[in-house]
Amino acid sequence: ALREEYGCSASTVREILFRLSTVGLVTFQEQRGFRVPERSPDKLIELTHMRILLEGEGAVMSIRQGGIAWEARLTAVHHQLSHIEKRIHARNDPSGLVDIWSSAEKEFHETLISASGSTVLKEMHGLIYAQFRQQLMVADRHFDFISDNIEHHAAILDAAVEGNEALTKQRIHEHLARHLTG
């Protein structure tokens, strides 16, 4: 079905699925093929801990090294995200905006750590973020978590732009803490 949908060969689909399996977004079982990983409350908790650690440290490094250009990028990305979140909050059925929200939310968190100066931190964050988002989307198909994010993202932005490292880490923890329970 994927081969036909994307107009490519079966070997191309297999190669892509193997690559996705190396980053934990697809599982492979001999004689059974590829599957999307099942929802796991324990895995979501572990991924949340890793996000808190990576984003907290990356944000502190960005605060120290990013300067006004980083603050301006973070503010602009937050403005876009906030606008989308407010529209979602006002709708009864936000499913039509979830894809654009997901992209904007990812961009906000990537920008938060973008001036860290650590390629490895950013790469690890990307892997953890993708698995986290996958687990979350399987867990909450009503997207209730989105409306809570409006205040959280604003609080993270404010603390980061103020240059308050401890408060920024605290706000990141508060933003993600609801995922620390099974």
Can you give a write-up of this model?
The protein has helices at residues 2-6, 10-22, 41-90, 98-113, 119-139, 145-162, 165-176, and strands spanning 27-29, 33-35. The chain is mainly alpha-helical and 182 residues long. Strands 1-2 form a two-stranded antiparallel sheet. Strand 1 (27-29) and strand 2 form a beta hairpin. It starts with a helix and ends in a 6-residue tail after the last helix. The mean pLDDT is 88.
What can be said about this structure in brief?
This protein is mainly alpha-helical and 182 residues long. It has helices spanning 2-6, 10-22, 41-90, 98-113, 119-139, 145-162, 165-176; strands at 27-29, 33-35. It is globular.
